[in-house]
Design brief:
The chain is α+β, with helices and mostly antiparallel strands. It folds into 3 domains: about 160 residues, ATPase, nucleotide binding domain (Nucleotidyltransferase, domain 5); about 90 residues, ATPase, nucleotide binding domain (Nucleotidyltransferase, domain 5, 2-Layer Sandwich), CATH 3.30.420.40; about 70 residues, Actin, Chain A, domain 4. It has 12 helices and 19 strands. It is flat.
């Protein structure tokens, strides 16, 4: 075996953030090599994979009868075992440039409150997708490491990771989780709230992709300095024909207020049960927000106003989990301390 193949063998390890909305794959030595929506399009007749990731997302709500677009992950856990395996296989192949002979070691980020059965499902999916070993780490710890927090120190940090399916809240000290809670209100739930609100208020039916665009462009947690509006198209529920309406940021803030309220309450509960010494640390260091939901306009301002603590958004909130998970590929000592059994 020449040196190059030895190096190739060791550098095949992958870190995966298996998210409800997006899956990110980090290859050792190469950085993030896959960042695609967690969606699989399958031909119902042949059971063959038609498309995965971005290509499959473009098909959402637009597929002919024999092709179905599936989101295999729901609320941060596997809802469809077979599709998850197909999706993982596809992304692992993509990360390795279609090299079938590689069996990588894989570190996967998982939500903090998933059951043993759900953990086993994630592990088995990765093993069946040709991984040689699978390590699971909690997304909150991975996000904290990815956000550059010195988690090995003896002081408390609070991280709030708002993903697609779950919001993970954790208080971390000495590489361990002192308190963690996962609430199943996050990006997808916000999209659904927008769909329902527009249906109720405007008698207009819109799809998931439109709802996500509205959330990104108009969504906010507190009043904006200058009002925003947006024209949206959908199907009028009374006349049954396509129609467009103009919506405002006020309306979308109204649609999102319940979900944001649940996340803020969960953070307040976490602060109430945190040991006093660590509470003092959090008062100094504040709360760090990661995940796609951290990008919701003025969420940091609203959270700071409601808790009285400083609130910071991680430098790259969308990739915090995968970057943190990737650090385990080179630090096995840390991985052993924090991997979930």
């Amino acid at each position: 075996m020449n040196l190059r193949s030895v190096f190739g063998f060791f550098s095949s390890d992958l870190a995966i953030d298996l998210g409800t909305a997006n899956t990110l794959v980090f290859a050792k030595g190469r950085g993030i090599v896959v960042n695609e929506p967690s969606i699989v399009a399958i031909d119902k007749n042949t059971k063959k994979v038609y498309a995965v990731g971005r290509e499959a997302k473009d098909m959402l709500g637009r597929t002919p009868g024999d092709i179905v677009a599936i989101k295999p992950m729901k609320d941060g856990v596997i809802a469809d075992f077979d599709s998850t395996e197909l999706m993982l296989k596809y992304f692992i192949k993509q990360a390795h440039g279609r090299n079938h002979l590689i069996s990588p070691r894989i570190v996967i980020g998982i939500p903090s409150e998933i059951t043993q059965v759900e953990k086993r499902a994630v592990q088995e999916s990765a093993l069946r997708a040709k991984a040689s070993e699978v390590f699971l780490v909690e997304q909150a710890i991975a996000a904290a490491i990815g956000a550059g927090m010195p988690i090995t120190e003896a002081c408390g940090y609070m991280i709030v990771d708002i993903g697609g399916g779950t919001t993970d809240i954790a208080v971390i000290s000495l590489s361990g989780i002192v308190y963690s809670r996962s609430v199943r209100v996050a990006g997808n739930e916000m999209d659904e709230a927008i769909i329902q609100y527009i249906k109720r208020k405007h008698n207009l039916l819109i799809g998931e992709r439109t709802a996500e665009t509205i959330k990104i462009q108009l969504g906010s947690a507190a009043p904006l300095e200058s009002p925003l509006t947006m024209e949206i198209k959908g199907r009028n529920l009374i006349e049954g024909v396509p129609k467009s309406v103009t919506i405002t940021d006020d309306e979308i803030r109204d649609a999102l207020s319940d979900g944001i309220g649940i996340i803020i309450n969960a953070i307040k509960v976490a602060l109430e049960v945190t040991p006093p010494e660590l509470s003092a640390d959090i008062m100094d260091r504040g709360i760090v927000l990661t995940g796609g939901g951290a990008l919701l306009k003025r969420l940091d301002k609203r959270l700071a106003a409601e808790t009285g603590l400083p609130v910071f958004i991680a430098e790259d909130p969308l990739s915090s989990v995968v970057i943190g998970t990737s650090k385990m590929l080179t630090d096995f000592k840390l991985l052993r301390r924090i991997c979930v059994h």
